[in-house]
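task queued by scheduler; priority normal; single chain, no ligands, no partner chains; default sampling; output format set to C-alpha cells
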Amino acid sequence: MAAEPLSNGAAHQSVPGRYILPVHKRPSYSANGKVAPPMLPVVDLGGDDDGRIAEEIIRAGREFGFFQVVNHGVPEEVMGAMMRAAEEFFGLPANEKMAYYSTDGKQLPRFHTSVRNGAGEEFLYWRDCLKLGCHPPEWPDNPRGLGAALEPYTAAVMAAARRVLRLTAIGLGLEEGHFDGSLSGSGLMNVNHYPPCPDPSLTLGAGPHCDPGLVTVLMENVGGGLQMLLHGDGDAGGGGVMWVDVDAAPGALVLNFGHQMEVVSNGRLRSAEHRVVTSARGARTSLATFVWPEPGCTVAPAQELVLAAGEGPLYKPHSYGEFLGAYLAEGGVKEAAMAHLKH
C-alpha cells in the first residue's frame, strides 16, 4: 500500500482512515496489571569496575530488557549534530525527500512511511522513517551535513554498544569477546519521525514488537512516546503486565535487548517488547541504531550457559538471515517470531 509520507505536507487536522487502527490494536487497548511503573535502570559506563557494571546490565536485562546508560562516551556535540541533521532531513521539501523514497526494504539509504501487514489486516503507523547503513555508513546527499554528522555518531554509538556487549558477556559468565565478530558484525539505523497526531487514541507510531538483533541504542530529541511492556514477575513485584513510559535522563542513551540476546543467553535476558504512542503536542524524532549478527551467522544459546545450568537449550541454532526473513513476515510480533527459534 503506497502512501504519501506524513512529513511531506501540512499538519493533519484528522487521522486519515488508513492510519486508524482496528479497535483491539489501539493504544487504549492495553495490558493492565498491578505493577507500579518503575524507574528505568541507569547504568553508569564510566569507571573501571567492570564487574559491578556488568551486574547492573544483567539485572536490568533480566527484569526489563531496557536500561539507560550515562558516561557512554558519545560526545554531547556529536549527539546534537546528528539530531539536528536528522531533523533537517524531515524538514526538506517533499520532492527532495522523495528522491530517496522506496518500498524496497533492502535499499539504503531509504525513505519511507511505515506499513505493517498482519493477520489479514493492512494499515499504516504514524511514522516516517529514513533507514541508513552503519557498516559502512550510508546516507543521502541531502541535507549536506548529514554525512559529516553520521560518521562520528555511528562510530561512537557502535563503540558504546560494543562495550555494553563485552560487559554483558562478562555478566553472563562468558568470554569477554563472545559477541565479537560476525555475531555483532552488522547494523542499521532507523531515523524515525513522528509528526503531531490529531487524535493519538486512534493510532500508534509503532506497534508492539521486539527488535530482532542483539541490542538497540536509542537517542531521541523529545521524551515521551516510547513504552515498554512491563512484566510483574520480576523483582519489581506485583503481578500482571502493563505498558509504561520509557523516560531517559538528558544526555543518556536508551538500550534494549533483542531476540538474539535472549537466544544467546538461553532466556536469562529478556528481549524487550515495546511500542511508540503518538502525541498531539509536537513532533518527535528518534535515532535507533540496531546491532545485528551478519546474515550468514549461526546464532545459538551459549554452550557455557547450557552446560553450567545443567539444562537443555531453549532455542535451536539458526541462521540470522533466515530468522530475519521470518521476523519481518510475522510483523515483529514477539510470540510468533520466537516460535521460529524455540525447540
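post-processing summary
- The domain at 18-297 is CATH 2.60.120.330 (Jelly Rolls).
- The first strand starts at residue 42 and ends at 44.
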